[in-house]
Amino acid sequence: MTASPPQAPPSGAPPRPQPAADGLVSAARRNLREIAHGLSHPSHPPVPPLANASGRWRRLLPYAAVLVLASIFVPVTLNVLTNEYGMAEGPAGLLTVAQTAPLLMLAHRPLQAWWIVFPADIVGALVLLRYADPQMSVWPWPAPTLICYLFVMLAVALRETRRTVVSVWALTCVASLVLHLGGTDRSNGTAGLLPALGAVFMVIGAVIRERGDAQRRLAEQETISEAERAQRTLLEERTRIARELHDVVAHHMSVITVQADSAPYRISGLSEEACEEFGAIAASARESLTEMRRLLTVLRSDGAEGERAPQPGLDRVQQLVEATVRAGLPAELSLPARLPDLPQAVDVSAYRIVQEALANVIRHAPGARTRISVTSDGAHLTVLVVNDRAEQPDSPLEPSGTGHGLVGMRERVRLTGGTLDTGPLPDGGFRVAARLPLTPATPEAPEDS
What class of enzyme is it (predicted)? Predict the structure, then answer.
């Protein structure tokens, strides 16, 4: 009686699960492929660890270190092989070059150096079976060979991934175990010493590498956070400017509405068409005010309410300076007795520039004497804020300036079409100079990206 072939699963039935053994075999093959790829492909470009260092001597330091190692281990290894083991100079020279010359590659290609040193050390151990005294000589790893190999393992741990590092250490353990089992008559064996010390060196190298990676990621994250903080400051300042402009424009639009609505009552003899035209002007002004309030609602943060007080101007700079003096910052104000009629945008921007400049002095140079000067030549308004060196240089509220306080000044100067000049002074102080035109500026067209 013949057995019938296995029946195919009915259509729509779930696939049969694969045996657990097949899954383990597939996982083992996949891991072996990944290990082989890691051992044959370095995880970093062939550049030294300090290639991006600022100082030239730091960039040359890895090359100097491997040159010193090679100059030490080449003669020492050759001397040990010829004198202690009695090996001929020719074979000893070849074996010395194979075991120590790859040290010169540790600065930029440590994994490739390991591929040369590891087989050379195994071949050297097999060759020493003919020369080594079973009772007196160290085998399979002579002292220079062992120390040289430890430096190779350290370099690999500093540059390669954890999987590759563990694989290198595992292959070293296997080679040491096989040689130990093949040379049981050797009383001074070092087969177990190399894996033990290699584990210590590789752990040290891995810790240093991961610490460096963590510091690099932290620096990158700080750079990103700083850029995001600057962008957020810019957006907040633009939103604030938009709210202030709303108040300025809303005032003029309200005046237009009142004038258009009251024109038929103030001016006698207007035709019906003229009255309708004034009514259309008033309706358009009201519609514009409604749209501006809707836009302001979008710009305002959630839960924030609009300010009830009018926007400040240069008429309130004296109060601002007095409040700053009471806060402990010596400040002097030079303001002309009479200023020309200022556009409201310029008036508000000048006040905010002085306010932000004084706030920066309090944050970064507490106690510094500050001089504020506001002048006008009829075409431009100049705002100058200069502070001396801090009287308390060791106690700034913000020891490292981020420059975010200047973002609002630049935005306001750009809004009015003026110029802003800021920078440190030779005596340690700081200078802020804004030049604002008194005539409306034409908005600049955005540049093509």
Answer: transferase
